[in-house]
């Protein structure tokens, strides 16, 4: 439990010029008499990239501290421009208000600070070298960040515990290592069983595929080759038959044309003979057509 509790901090001159001093009204409570003074500090963060530019603006010793609620005003000088990079003067930075007892910090309050020109024209088009007389600071007092630390005060009883408290019941609890090993064994057994099931399923699937292949027709071997030869012979016979039939038809057509020529020649000699010959030709053609149909 902290002997001193910070109750509130109020920024008095805000906003203000960059070169004006910082002023804070601090209220705190002391629960028991203290043998030493409280040390208050204000630190200005000069750069966000390096702590080398941080500078302590001021420090104040307050004491002796009476028991109860106490209030005082803490005033600190503005930062030294020579210790701040030129590119870091304008923009947002941080100030830290802290309090320590016997060189042990127990509370810290951080504020954002915005540094900008007091007119819009210079803010939109800032000069290459900052004009400090025109720079105005604004502390965001509504959003402080407070951090507290447990420290040792005057008595040993107030010192924070350096070691965890004893826990006799912890010895009766089962060791985590044993339980973890048992869980590992169960997990390995489960994985082995799952792998065996997968292998069994794959083996059954392979056997089923072999049986299906066995029931299919054999497309290789002597029997298949013999069947293919028979099919090819049958196809060749049909082609020969068709070719012979077409040759016979061509021969008969040629003979019919020859007879027609002879009939035409005979027709020149006499009409009666030509008519008889024409009748004969028609009978022959009918006979040939019948033969062709048979084929």
Give the proportion of residues in helices. Answer: 25-40%
Helix and strand succession? EEEEEEEEHEEHHH
Low-confidence stretches: 234-247, 251-274, 290-295
The biggest sheet amounts to:
7 strands, antiparallel
Distance between the termini: 125 Å
User: Based on helices, strands and strand pairing, what is the structural class?
Assistant: alpha+beta
The gross shape turns out to be flat
Question: What is the residue-mean pLDDT, rounded to a whole number?
Answer: 75
- Computed CA radius of gyration, to the nearest angstrom: 58 Å
Output the number of helix runs: 4
Number of strands: 10
Strand content: 25-35%
Describe it.
- The protein contains four helices and ten strands.
- The protein is of the alpha+beta class and 295 residues long.
- Helix 3 packs antiparallel against helix 4 (271-294).
- The longest helix is centred in the last third of the chain and has 48 residues, at 222-269.
- 9% of the residues are buried.
């Amino acid at each position: 439990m902290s002997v001193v509790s910070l109750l509130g901090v109020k920024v008095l001159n805000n906003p203000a010029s960059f070169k004006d001093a910082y002023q804070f009204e601090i209220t705190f409570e002391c629960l028991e008499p203290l043998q030493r003074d409280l040390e208050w500090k204000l630190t200005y963060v000069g750069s966000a990239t390096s702590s080398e530019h941080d500078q302590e603006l001021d420090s104040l010793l307050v004491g002796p501290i009476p028991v109860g609620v106490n209030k005082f005003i803490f005033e600190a000088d503005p930062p030294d421009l020579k210790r701040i990079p030129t590119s870091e003067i304008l923009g947002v930075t941080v100030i830290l208000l802290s309090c320590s007892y016997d060189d042990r910090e127990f509370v810290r309050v951080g504020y954002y600070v915005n540094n900008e020109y007091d007119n819009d024209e210079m803010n939109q088009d800032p000069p290459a070298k900052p004009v400090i007389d025109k720079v105005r600071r604004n502390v965001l007092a509504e959003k402080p960040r407070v951090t507290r630390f447990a420290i040792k005060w005057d008595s040993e009883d107030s010192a924070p515990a350096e070691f965890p408290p004893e826990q006799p019941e912890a010895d009766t609890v089962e060791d985590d290592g044993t339980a973890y090993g048992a869980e590992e064994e169960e997990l390995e057994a489960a994985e082995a069983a799952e792998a065996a099931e997968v292998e069994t399923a794959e083996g059954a699937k392979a056997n089923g595929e072999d049986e299906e292949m066995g029931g299919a027709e054999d497309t290789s071997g002597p029997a298949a080759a013999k069947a293919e030869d028979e099919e090819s012979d049958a196809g060749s016979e049909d082609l020969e038959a068709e070719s012979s039939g077409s040759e016979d038809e061509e021969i008969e057509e040629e003979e019919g044309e020859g007879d027609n020529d002879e009939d035409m020649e005979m027709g020149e000699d006499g009409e009666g003979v030509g008519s008889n010959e024409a009748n004969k030709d028609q009978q022959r053609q009918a006979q040939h057509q019948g033969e062709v149909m048979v084929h």
